[in-house]
Amino acid sequence: MMYMLKVENLYAGYGSSEVLTGVSLEVAQGRVVALIGANGAGKTTTMRAISGMLKPRRGRVLLDGEPVQGKDASRIAGLGLAHAPEGRRVFGPLSVEDNLLLGAYGRLPLFWGYRGRAARDLDKIYVLFPVLHERRLQSAGTLSGGEQQMLAIGRALMAGPKVMLLDEPSMGLAPVIVQEVFATIRNLKAAGITLLLVEQFARSALEVADYAYVMERGRIVAEGVPDELYRDERVLAAYLG
Amino acid sequence: MITAQIVVSGALMGLVYALVAYGFQLTYATSKSINFGQGELVMLSAFFSLTLLDWGVPYWLMVPGGLLFGVLLGLFVERAAVRLALEQKSEGWILLTIIVGLLGFSAAENIWGRDDRPFPTPISSDALHIFGVSITPVEISVAIGVFALMGLIELFKRKTLLGKAFEAVSADREAAELMGISATRTVMLSYGLSGLVAAMAGILVSPITTVGPTMASALILKAFSVAVVAGLDSGFGVVIVGIFLGSLESLTSFYIGSGWREAPGLILLILALAARPNGVFGKAGIRKV
Ligand SMILES: Nc1ncnc2c1ncn2[C@@H]1O[C@H](COP(=O)(O)OP(=O)(O)O)[C@@H](O)[C@H]1O
Ligand SMILES: [Mg+2]
Questions:
Q1: Does the interface ipTM go beyond 0.90?
Q2: Is any atom of ligand 1 closer than 6 Å to the C-beta of A19?
Q3: How far are the Cα atoms of A20, A64, A215, B100 from residue A12, in angstroms, in the given order?
Q4: Domain A3-90+162-239 sits in which CATH superfamily?
């Protein structure tokens, strides 16, 4: 089995507080892996520690076999990890298209000709998200929450990443939009994107995931293919009730 | 008519305040920090440019040389006074940039002496009369230089991918890092650009003000006022506030007395500070650094 992302015994926290105490997980190439757990369990912290937004205190993060823990977030991004963070974090004052172009920052020329070089990838994103094409000249801050989430996903895709981390894409969205977000995730899966997904809608996440981890207070407490987790009484009661 | 004349020459000086204030905005955008020794950068670049002229470098070659020197000074300030403080999320850059400025001041006194020296320029100082207002080509060159440089930098920010990355870091530093953009290098870039801007200001005003160690000490205070009033993050607002302050100053100086020339800038600064109880940098700003 080829692991695109492998996290081994990861410790991380903020200031004096330890949040993650030995998290291990694996994401195989082309698979969708869900990370579920209650609010405050440490899912976002796990993603931040993987992508370098937060420096892990111990443990290893292997991206396509290469250790990346301790590197700057910008380096890790350049090595093929795209993190669509919690809260979307689109660049509000910049246009939708500029946001997408910046997603591919690492592989485009910095001064001239970047637009031409990115044209084909941009077109793919616009096929996936026609609304982004309609709004490509608008500043990202004027988009609705759902559109911003599409933009955050499109921006991450523009990098052509080896692994994508997607943190609570449905957060704060209306139910119909949440349906759209999950439809998008199924599209990503069909396209063969390797994805680590954090979701509060655990049931929907398990429907699309190939494998899942359950997190509690900074540790992985259960894991398995979705069918196994559905049979786990404790997991069922706590997260899928 | 005399009033129009006074407003025009004041406004030109105001454009220089605006240019230096724009330099404050550039670094504030990427790092929520500014170089309090920016005035010394203006002065050192002017001295260096004058030295190039002394060495016989032709004026139009001196300009890029002087500007490059400014860029290097800006990068030096970032490395020596800003980067560590930002990494430690402290506000140490305030004191450190002041100290680097003081060092620059002493260096200038030792290298070039304390005297004010004229700055030769091939651009004519013979007044032209336009709609009854007399204006010299040197003064016109100030306006052209200010707008050209600000325009070029804005064009860079909007049209190149590197410029967009600059804007991305300004908008959300962490998210920009997730795109593979190095925030550290972007902050360097912004300090390089603010050094460029300072050098341009030095080259533009020197023919009017002469060159000396203290040439920029009044200038910098007023540029700071302009930046604070216009907002440290609000683009071309500095041009309007700069022109306003420059005009107000020369009107004050003419109608009230030349001793009162500095008063409007200080009053403006006091008012701006009073209107911002969180301080110039704002609470949110400091937390985000
Ligand atoms: N910036 C922060 N500073 C201090 N503590 C934090 C910070 N972010 C999160 N935490 C704490 O870390 C724990 C895990 O948070 P988080 O990873 O956001 O959980 P989840 O994403 O699973 O809801 C929580 O107890 C939270 O209070
Ligand atoms: Mg979270």
A1: yes
A2: yes
A3: 5, 21, 14, 37
A4: P-loop containing nucleotide triphosphate hydrolases (3.40.50.300)
